[in-house]
Write a structure and sequence with these properties.
Chain lengths: ~120, ~110
Amino acid sequence: GAGVSQSPSNKVTEKGKDVELRCDPISGHTALYWYRQSLGQGLEFLIYFQGNSAPDKSGLPSDRFSAERTGGSVSTLTIQRTQQEDSAVYLCASSLDSGRTDTQYFGPGTRLTVL
Amino acid sequence: DAKTTQPNSMESNEEEPVHLPCNHSTISGTDYIHWYRQLPSQGPEYVIHGLTSNVNNRMASLAIAEDRKSSTLILHRATLRDAAVYYCILRDRHYGQNFVFGPGTRLSVLP
């Protein structure tokens, strides 16, 4: 079946511009996660959605970052006034729920380059 | 949060077994041990998870120490496609917590 998809696969933008990254989770998955991975680094948690609950935004690095999840499905991560340090691969994952044993399925990521 | 430590890198020959260690000395009684791997230019993918008993699936085996302070991911016959970064992760006991990914172990497989 269809996995997690993300778009665009690559995004090049100029410093100061806003960008929107999209994630389509696996159908029926109630939990959705955003991570980012800088070059050669591990994954850094950004934000987590579970059903209709308030999202866990504890990983967002600054107020320039925001995310929403419409209708419990598609999610959009928005970065305002991008900076060069925002350059990274942004990964989205979804899971059936968010229990201790649940498996996260990751998308291929969006590579963001801020010039 | 309980942390894990893994070697930065390991090397294996093709078709030989690989044992990837992970230390988690501060693990709590209800933390599950998860392993994911990340192939080059891809998102991470699930490998295996366990709590106390050893686990086997089609991809790998997970051996968990009796005191649960360490575990070992076993690839029975490494292939070139197994070259990846392997992450050992403890799932926080609080419902809904995200995964905390450390730097992982970069596995190279030599032909």
